[in-house]
């Protein structure tokens, strides 16, 4: 399929430039430049602020957490935030070279890499087994892997619909169930952090499959939270606003759409990948022990307005 991985934009997808396959759901060559690297982008009306949130330290000491989508973008920042908080991380994505770059940014030995294609949700038990062989029993999971395809609803390709629903919704659901089963077999439970979107809460045009997947993620979070609460497992959702990554690169290259985004952020700045780490670490840590089934929007106030 021709997935076009940027987060929902409001101004329509017609005329959106093609995105290289490496950014469109296919693995990039390890030798190719990382999509997480800064790339030439048309200046937009919103300039990311240099603010970098202080890392949370120590909150996850002794924990082991699987983070999907950890090769670049938000998943990489989440993996590094979780590792910085003291956890051992198993970083999952398809592109081994990008995972290695993530690991190299963490303290030595803190991040293990496990290349895996999440488009095959029926391999979730094998993924958990592999992660636990690498790093020991898992305490938590963060589902940051995601893809996008932009097209008017009336023309939406069936294969793109299916692939987005598989990677963005089915994969995290079945992976969490596999983590939960492995924990239950040890008499334990853990924290599950799903990644939503503004599209979990509001309608945005030309992203029907992505919207279905991200609204579905919120439904899964609430269902699992209720079903698993008695076991001690907690299930929550972090929903980023617009953040400049490979997923949104073309959106921010479009001055009109970038201006639309800029005009809707009460805090007056774009989010940065590191902005997500605090909420993710909090939801994995004991500090959130009585919180489950919740959605935390990390959007600079977008949805408050
Ligand atoms: N950026 C935003 O503004 C924004 C806003 C709201 C929500 N989000 C959500 O945040 C999450 C991360 O997005 P991002 O912006 O960081 O995107 P990104 O930079 O494109 O990163 C996506 C990650 O997911 C991995 N991935 C994609 N398909 C995969 C598959 N089949 N199997 C395994 N890994 C796969 C990618 O690695 P490989 O390609 O190597 O597999 C990559 O590591 C997504 O769920 C996205 O929907 C992003």
From TrEMBL:
GO terms for molecular function: oxidoreductase activity, acting on the CH-OH group of donors, NAD or NADP as acceptor. Keywords: Oxidoreductase. Residues 30-53 have a biased composition (Pro residues). Residues 1-57 are annotated as: Disordered. SUPFAM superfamilies: NAD(P)-binding Rossmann-fold domains. It holds the Pfam family adh_short_C2. Residues 16-29 have a biased composition (Low complexity). Belongs to the short-chain dehydrogenases/reductases (SDR) family. This is 2-deoxy-D-gluconate 3-dehydrogenase. It comes from Frankia torreyi. The lineage of its organism: Bacteria, Bacillati, Actinomycetota, Actinomycetes, Frankiales.
């Amino acid at each position: 399929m021709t997935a076009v991985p940027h987060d929902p934009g409001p101004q329509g997808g017609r005329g959106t430039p093609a995105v290289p396959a490496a950014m469109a759901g296919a693995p990039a060559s390890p030798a190719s430049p990382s999509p997480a690297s800064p790339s030439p982008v048309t200046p937009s009306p919103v300039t990311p602020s240099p603010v970098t949130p202080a890392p949370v330290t120590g909150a996850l000491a002794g924990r082991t957490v699987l983070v999907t989508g950890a090769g670049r973008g938000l998943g990489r920042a989440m993996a590094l935030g979780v590792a910085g908080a003291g956890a051992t991380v198993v970083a999952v994505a398809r592109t081994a070279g990008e995972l290695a770059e993530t690991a190299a940014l963490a303290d030595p030995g803190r991040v293990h890499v496990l290349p895996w294609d999440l488009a095959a949700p029926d391999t979730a038990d094998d993924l958990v087994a592999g992660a636990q062989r690498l790093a020991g029993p898992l305490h938590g999971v963060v589902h940051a892997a995601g893809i996008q395809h932009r097209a008017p609803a009336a023309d939406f390709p069936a294969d793109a619909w299916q692939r987005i629903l598989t990677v963005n919704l089915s994969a995290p659901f079945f992976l969490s169930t596999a983590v939960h089963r492995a924990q239950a077999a040890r008499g334990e439970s853990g924290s599950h952090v799903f990644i939503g979107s503004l599209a979990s809460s509001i309608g945005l045009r030309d992203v029907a499959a992505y919207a279905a997947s991200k609204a579905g993620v919120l439904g899964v979070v609430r269902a699992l939270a209720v079903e698993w609460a008695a076991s001690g497992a907690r299930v929550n959702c972090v929903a980023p606003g617009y953040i400049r990554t490979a997923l949104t690169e073309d959106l921010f290259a479009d001055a009109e759409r970038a201006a639309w985004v800029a005009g809707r952020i009460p805090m007056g700045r774009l989010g940065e990948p590191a902005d997500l780490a605090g909420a993710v670490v909090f939801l994995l840590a004991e500090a959130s022990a009585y919180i489950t089934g919740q959605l935390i929007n990390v959007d600079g106030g977008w949805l408050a307005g």
